[in-house]
Inverse folding.
């Protein structure tokens, strides 16, 4: 299993011969606009919530790849109006796909579609595949609900660390204790001025807390 980072919270996980693309925001991102989104060809697109910096390329990539979209029910309904059939879920529910199982978990944030339509509740995902458990937190504050993942024995967690809109570094470190996971990939930072972080300081804080932290560069691939 491996993950490739495409900026902001956009991650492509390859597992069991399938490609899972999370929160596609590529073409509006100045750092990533050179990437050919139609070359990604995901089998699934997982959407944590409806904000533009998580769904900007959703429709274009789905149309060119035919990917199945996994999202909260309200976003699935919105996609239906764009002639896209999605697999709608809701918080606490799980479903078995051909690559493994997906469970939708709570996130504390907001969610509105780019056109102002209701985006339902924000969410995170736990992916069960190849005998591993991967947590993609989505955009979230630190929440005590994360303690529900404590006994999952997570292998990796993708956590937002940019502050302002989501958890910052300090709260993300607290989150690692709640979820009992010491392997973290930081996302949702540096894309906009208000979420620029001091990466060296962030890494130092995570290491001091005993956390194996990865802040991947654009298009870097990490073995999970």
């Amino acid at each position: 299993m491996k993950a490739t980072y495409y900026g902001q919270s956009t991650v492509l996980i390859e597992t069991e011969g399938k490609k899972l693309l999370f929160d596609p925001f590529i073409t509006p991102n100045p750092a990533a606009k050179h990437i050919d989104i139609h070359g990604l060809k995901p089998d699934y697109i997982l959407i944590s919530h409806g904000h533009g910096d998580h769904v900007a390329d959703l429709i274009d990539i789905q149309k060119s790849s035919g990917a199945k979209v996994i999202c909260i029910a309200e976003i699935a309904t919105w996609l239906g109006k764009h002639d896209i059939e999605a697999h709608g879920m809701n918080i606490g529910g799980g479903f078995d796909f051909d690559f493994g199982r997906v469970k939708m978990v709570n996130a504390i944030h907001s969610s509105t579609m780019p056109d102002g339509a209701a985006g339902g509740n924000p969410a995170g995902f736990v992916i069960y595949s190849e005998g591993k458990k991967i947590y993609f937190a989505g955009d979230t504050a630190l929440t005590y609900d994360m303690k529900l993942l404590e006994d999952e024995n997570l292998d990796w967690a993708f956590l937002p660390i940019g502050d302002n809109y989501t958890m910052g570094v300090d709260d993300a470190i607290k989150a690692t204790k709640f979820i009992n996971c010491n392997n973290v990939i930081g996302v949702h930072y540096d894309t906009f001025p208000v979420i620029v972080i001091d990466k060296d300081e962030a890494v130092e804080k995570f290491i001091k807390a005993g956390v194996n932290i990865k802040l991947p560069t654009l298009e870097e691939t990490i073995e999970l």
In short: The chain has one domain: 2-223. The chain is about 20% helix and 30% strand. The two ends are 6 Å apart (CA to CA).
